[in-house]
Design brief:
The protein is built from 16 helices and no strands. Helix content is 76%, strand content 0%. It has one domain. Pfam families: EamA.
Amino acid sequence: MPGKATTLDDSPLAPASRGVRLASMGILLAGGLWGFYWLPVRELEQHHLGGVFGSLIIAVTACLLLLPWAWHYRHRLRRASAKGLVSVALGGAAFMLYSIALVYGQVAVVILLFYLTPVWSTLIERFWWRWPLTGRRMAVIALGLGGLGLVMSGNGSPLPQGPGDWLGLASGALWAIASSGMREHNTLGPGEGSFLFAIGAVIAALLLMPALSPELIVPDLLVKRLSIIDAPWTAAGWALAAAGVWWAASLAIVVWAAGHLAPARLGILMMSEVLVGVFSAALFAGEPLAMIQIIGAALVITAAVMEVIPTPRTATG
């Protein structure tokens, strides 16, 4: 993930201070947790809360949990720039697309599609900011898109096919835009930042509802849908867990740790999500990757690592 230039002490391989070690452990934990995020989403689907519905309930619950924190620090929301606010909300929208994609698509494939973010970041920098393309950034694009083709080929086509694939791809592209804006303009703290993040997710879910879950906007059909929810208290527990553990706690950890870690170290540690997600889906969801997809996954991860490791010139200042 592109960001400010780092010093040699900030590089991923430099000895870490106590604060950096604590933040690093927090990012590893948060990344690992997001590797299991498919579990509550799929559980809600089993309780007839699939599609947009389950993810919308999670995001609304997260808003309610974070509302007291956001209210306490509302002065930060008032002082924040419009670009910062929009960027954070777009980040939440990206995560909503990712959450819904996990219902429609193969877990490991959706995660890898999301982690094509370095490709979109590079293209944004080239065509929006007019930055020149270095050989290394061109290699990131080639590896990322090559990996995408191999991952998709495991399903019979090198292109995304169902709504899960397209939503996963769109979530990564939108996250590239949002994260770029947040790096430049975001001044919010963990609590109010996560609250606005969840608000953006709710808005995205409402916009997607007519296309993916049109029955939710028809009162009679919505009542019928609610009446068939299986084990509503169990479903409510999963929604609360997803909102509290993933959308509130882990996002707050990421926001806090980002202030203590260099972008390179942060980006590499977040790769724990990919590893945990791929292996957990294979073990517990019965969705292993084919060998060609594993090779593609390796290319996508390589592109992401190339994106975040500082060049010698950057590392030495």
